[in-house]
Amino acid sequence: MIRLFNFYHEKSKKFFLSSLLLILTSYFAKYVFQLTMPESQWNRLPIILSVIAAIVLTWRINQLDIQSNHRTLASTVTQSTFEKMVAKYLLSYLQVILIGGVNLIFNFSTISLNLGELVLLALELAVYLAGIISYLVLFRGVVAKLWLPNFSKTFVIAIGWGLIVLLNDIARYYFPQSVTIVLPINHGKFYPSTFILNACLSATFVFVYLWLKRNQTNDDR
Predict the structure, then answer these.
(1) CA torsion, points 153, 155, 161, 166, in degrees to nearest 10?
(2) pLDDT tens string 171-184
(3) Could you give the CA distance from residue 128 to residue 85 in angstroms, rounded to a whole number?
(4) Comparing C-alpha atoms, which of 60, 87, 59 is closest to residue 75?
(5) Which residues contact 103 (CB under 8 A, 6 or more apart)?
(6) CB 30 within 8 A of CB 43
């Protein structure tokens, strides 16, 4: 597992460091514009860039060894599919945590989190990171493995994404109870209903992908 972790880290290190540099530069630009043009609206730019960087990093790492044009079998052929998924997920989680830590450092005067809120935030991040991987990577991998002669796979993926968004809206509408957390990134709200929904959906995508992968391997034998 450690060898896999290090292997995927080497594959993503350059982009990760570039993303951190971009985020730090955006904070520097924010302070410069606040001093020279107090009326400028740059407050949220570093956070927006951080979210985009986290999503792109997660997608880049977790598509390795899943999408046909991003194979790394020469170095990972002896490892199981599940081990690869866990290694990539842990690396993604660590990198996103580091990006979040940078933002907490630069916003320490406006964000106050106790231990319970930090644990809740860490759990929320873990589930929604798994959701990003499931929806953007594993779902595409599942559709790619299905035989759909009469349907466009792009259309199926788009429909699937639409249903996921709809399910989240329904869960939030019928179960609107929330927990307040003082964070600018999610408007200070944590919704247990969508948390549970996305956890279940992510687990389902992981199970289906692993099941299809195992059946494909058995057929190849």
Answers:
(1) -140
(2) 888 887 766 655 54
(3) 16
(4) 87
(5) 23, 46, 47, 50
(6) yes
pLDDT in tens, 65-99: 775 555 555 555 667 888 888 999 999 999 999 99
How is 67-133 classified by DSSP, letter by letter? STTS--HHHHTTS-HHHHHHHHHHHHHHHHHHHHHHHHHHTTTT----HHHHHHHHHHHHHHHHHHH
User: 9: helix, coil or strand?
Assistant: helix
The model's pTM:
0.81
User: What token pair was written down for 2?
Assistant: 């450690």
Q: CB–CB of 174/102 below 8 Å?
A: no
Asked whether 7 and 84 are in contact (CB, 8 A), the reply is no
Q: Which among 39, 48, 37 has a CA at the least distance from the CA of 184?
A: 48
| Residue in the block written with tokens 């798994």 | 130
Q: Which residues pair with 190 in a beta bridge?
A: 179
> Are the C-beta atoms of 20 and 99 separated by less than 8 Å?
yes
Tokens of 179: 């927990």
| Upper half-sphere CA count for residue 141 (Cβ side, 13 Å) | 29
Residues 188-202 have pLDDT tens digits of 567 788 888 899 999
Q: How far apart are CA 100 and CA 10, in angstroms?
A: 21
Classify 10 as helix, strand or coil: helix
Residues contacting 217, CB < 8 A, separation 6+: none
